[in-house]
Amino acid sequence: MYKRFTRCSTLDAARDCWGIYALKKNASYVHFSDYNDSVIDNVLTETLVANGLASEATDSSRIIASSGDWERLSKGLKEEFDIILTAETIYNEDYYSRLFEAIDSTLAQSGVVYLAAKSHYFGCSGSVFAWIEFVKTKKNYTIDVIWSSSGEGELRRDIIRMIKL
């Protein structure tokens, strides 16, 4: 259905386990992005070294990193990705348009997005249900929940898969 980790992007890198996994599974390259430049400048290198990828931290042929708002990302990047990995990015419905534009403008045809999220966010307007309904209005994606946590008494967490048609 999709190319295996050839060109990968992560949104909101932080201590990006998914991007690290993609590098370890021999992605051609991984684009790490985060709103805060300090995360890219400080945390990303530390995380690469801690995961045995010190050579990747100094060899930029497989790593691209950028910081800034999703709107800037959607207008600034010219490459397309086969897979986009992101977590906890749907916490506020006010940002859905910018997040979707960043995804849509950088995801290749037949590309896949995996988005991990809480079922809903307290004090914010975002939720898995609201994101799915938002994406359904765009008509050029299939979207479904492919995994949900089932721990009793805890806030449910989901993994959403989006495929660009």
TrEMBL record:
InterPro entries: Methyltransf_16, SAM-dependent_MTases_sf. The keyword Transferase applies. Pfam families: Methyltransf_16 (PF10294). One of its GO terms (biological process) is methylation. Keywords: Methyltransferase, S-adenosyl-L-methionine, Transferase. One of its GO terms (molecular function) is methyltransferase activity. This is Calmodulin-lysine N-methyltransferase. It comes from Oikopleura dioica.
